[in-house]
Amino acid sequence: MKRNWLVAAVILLALMTVPMVWAAGQAAPQQPPPQQPQQQQQAYTKDEYDKFNAAVNEKDATQRVRLLDDFAAKYPNSTLLPYVFRDYVVAYTELRNNLKVMESADRFLALGEKVDTMQGLETARLQVCILRAQAFFAALNARQLTTNEQFAAAREGAQKGLKLLDDLKKPENVAEEEFKKQTNAYRVMFHSVIGFAARQMKDFKGAIEAFRAAQAVTPNDASLYYQIGLSYLQQDPPQQMDGFWAIARSIALKVQGEAQIRTYLRNQLLRYQQPTCDSLLDAQLNELITLAATAAERPSNFSIPSRAELDKVLSENGTVEAISENLKAGGDKAKNTWLAACGAEFPELLGKVMEVGAADGDAVVLKIFSASTQEATEAGTAANMELHVEGQPRAKGFKKDDLFVFAG
Fold first, then answer.
1. Which residues contact 70 (CB under 8 A, 6 or more apart)?
2. Quick one: which of 240, 130, 266, 262 has its CA closest to 192?
3. pLDDT tens digit sequence for 283-338
């Protein structure tokens, strides 16, 4: 099943509020970036600065990349390179070259905090982190990321973005509520990048922690519950109960692709429990989703029995009397007994006919009493089992109190 992480809304928010890096064709600063130390007043030549302006002001993104390449090759030590590196990110974003966006973003971010004091770059590091995160999700959906190094770099970039958010001051012209709303959207995005990157590196614990950090910001985000559930189920060994619950809650919250995710969860339950009666599996699935709708976290006393647990129930309570008593007891004992016994085969059981029901075609309905020994069976006075016998004509000749051996 293809799973596209829905970040478009987050990214649009990101591009709305924080002052954006130069867009295509936007003029560069007309005055050289300040060089405070006296010896750096003539940090670049007029020709160097003219070529820089020609590159960053080029409206065609493909041609702009060529001009940026030419500038970087001719002036490898230019003090204008931070602006060039930043504009690479913008140009490759316009070209939708995800891998180059991330590569250019990492090159810019490697410059560190010193760029924050340069004219026009005061918020550029956060802006670049946002664009890098956007490119990561696009590349992930396009299956362009294949190495742990790529995922580790994505995680590092998102961690830098979170730190920059912590240090970001609210602009005076932005309302507090709007500022919080949009910075929270960025937090969800960065935590989600960390979660996806960690899971691709098989750091499932780290993935769960990251998705839960995003969930703390948006508690009812169905897609985050789904990602948490997947991470639990992909651990070795898998944590089925927490995984089942989280995915069931995502379904209860109407996650996108609900029908496919419901099918996925059913298949996981089927693999885990291997019940012999499909109807019981569907009943458990519906019950799980209903319960998960009421609580974000799985109650400590909630569990679904595995195939091994059901086999143990049958091995310890495999007689007709034990099954009957367990079913009468109600509660989890009855539930687990029925899950174990439904559809199971019972060879060479002894039965005593209490009543012969009306035949329907070749079928005969027998109400019988069955026990584990002949003495106990003969002593029975009331039916504890109903048999539907097909293809056995002699069954029509049974009389009350007849004893017989059967399998079913």
1. 51, 55
2. 130
3. 999 999 999 999 999 999 888 888 887 777 666 666 666 666 666 667 677 676 66
- The tens digit of pLDDT for each residue in 369-402 reads 877 777 877 788 888 877 778 777 777 778 888 7
- Determine if residue 361 is left, alpha or beta; phi over 0 gives left, psi from -120 to 50 gives alpha, anything else beta: left
